[in-house]
Amino acid sequence: MWYTVTHEWVTKEGNHARIGVTDFAQRELGDIVYVELPTVGKAVKKGDVSVVLESTKAAADVYAPLSGTILSVNEELKQAPEKINLSAEEQGWLFTMSIDHQEELNTLLQEKPA
Amino acid sequence: MEQPQVNSLKQTTLYQHHLALGAKIVPFAGWQMPLHYRGLLHEHRVVREKVGLFDVSHMGRMTIEGLDVQAFVDWLVTADVPAKQEGQVFYALLCNQEGGVIDDVLIIKESTTCFHLVANASNREKVYAHFIEESPTYDVIIEPSSREGILALQGPLAEQVAVRLFPTLAQLPPHRALKVFFQETPILVSRTGYTGEDGFEFFVPEDTVTALWETLLAQGAPEEIEPIGLGARDTLRLEMGYALYGHELNERISPLETVAAWAVQLGKTNFRGKGALTASSSSRCYPLAIVMDDASIPREGYAIYREKMCIGQVTSGTYSPSLGKGIALGRVDSPCQVGEKVFVEIRNQKHAAEVVKLPFYQRRR
């Protein structure tokens, strides 16, 4: 698993990546009540805002940790955004994407940011 | 996120207790305050369904005494002060000469010669300075009670918990205050709050606030009382459509154009700002309450549209835990009808919303 300084996590599954936010991020946000997911098929560049998580207090941007195309989104979050609070690093995953530039993985953190 | 210098922030007497209870602490109006303990949604439900306890000691308190107090306060606020009875508690606005709002306050009329006032934390110095500045021609003494805690016990089971400690509170009607004794210390209790639920606000000397906090939490155990943070305080107040200073109210907006218009008694002989408020103005704005049609959440500053025309902005917006929908108060330049469709622009997309009557949430009786 890889991480970003903005508290996203990345796992590699075959030749695509699964993305979510860390448990630390969900705790910082508080109760998440709405998730704006990207459109499947959309091309994103590393650093683009790809998801918006809304807690009761505020909206928070989630950045694409890699460049690629959105392959799937976690549809369950539309009905149950609280899954991110309950299981940020497993059931609360956000989307999967293709990996356009394998070398971008080297720019990610190997350990969770402090 | 911007982090103000933590060491310049003030802490309430209960700060260590909040930490021990697992609170997430955030800076608020110069104070380090609990945002939530177990979680905002959970805490919101606790107050709507059972009973919760808030530390709101960051709010500004002052006592005004003297022979001219009634006339002095009546000149400075929008409420009809002589008409209030002794022991009555009321909401009022302090206006500047231009009719804008310096602060919205809660006033306890203990007697015709003794008033207590609760100001917003962000305005405590400003309100005190304003009172001092206006006071020279009146026989009054203004005493800021900065060494005092305020606890708010709120929820449908608040009375059940309160009377276990203070039996006389069972007879205290809403918007009334009385003195009770706690461990031989007199404390002022007002049957008010900012949540829309039944409840009490306790004004407690600094050396007694910890004991009262602990006692209320212990005595409320059968009702499953919990500490509640400022996060739920905001969603609770917004569900009731209550104004929040700095959002619905400020020094440049006429209160007559806000949800707090009811608190302006234009029939009063005179009060500071009355001239400006009664002068006719060519343009005016209107308060608006909306519920989103979809799951999106309106936030402060978002533009509100009627068809293609931008008619105003959201002043307070959040997710309503009770309705399960996004709700907002707004300020628009043309009046809207209840039931009308408007649109809120959220990240370049227009989301439909319905204009509703306040409150957003009706308390269960």
Series of H and E elements of chain A: EEEHEEEEEHHE
Structural class of chain B: alpha+beta
> Roughly how many Å is the radius of gyration of chain A?
13 Å
Overall helicity of chain B: 10-25%
Annotation, overall tally of beta strands of chain A: 9
> Helix tally of chain B?
8
Structural class of chain A, please? mainly beta
**Uncertain ranges of chain B:** none
Give the overall silhouette of chain B.
globular
Beginning-to-end CA distance, first to last residue of chain A: 16 Å
Tell me the radius of gyration of chain B. Answer: 21 Å
**Helix and strand pattern of chain B:** EHEEHEEHEEEHEEHEEEHEHHEEEEEE
Report the average pLDDT across residues of chain A: 95
Give the total of beta strands of chain B: 20
- The protein's oligomeric status is heterodimer
Short structural description:
The complex is a heterodimer of chains A (114) and B (365). Chain A is mostly beta strands and 114 residues long.
Architecture overview:
The complex is a heterodimer of chains A (114) and B (365). Chain A has helices at 23-29, 76-79, 83-86; strands at residues 2-3, 8-13, 16-21, 32-36, 43-44, 49-55, 59-63, 68-73, 95-98. A six-stranded antiparallel sheet of chain A has the order 1-2-3-9-8-5. A three-stranded antiparallel sheet of chain A has the order 4-6-7, with no helix packed on it. Chain A is 13% helix and 38% strand. With 114 residues, chain A is mainly β. Chain A contains three helices and nine strands. In chain A, β6 and β7 (59-63) form a beta hairpin. Chain B contains eight helices and 20 strands. In chain B, strands 11-12-13-10-4-14 form a six-stranded mixed sheet. A six-stranded antiparallel β-barrel of chain B has the order 15-18-17-16-19-20. Chain B has a five-stranded antiparallel sheet with strand order 6-7-8-5-9, with helices on one face. In chain B, α2 (40-49) packs across α7 (230-240). The longest helix of chain B is centred in the middle third of the chain and has 14 residues, at 206-219. Chain B is globular, with a radius of gyration of 21 Å. Classes of the chains: A mainly beta (114), B alpha+beta (365).
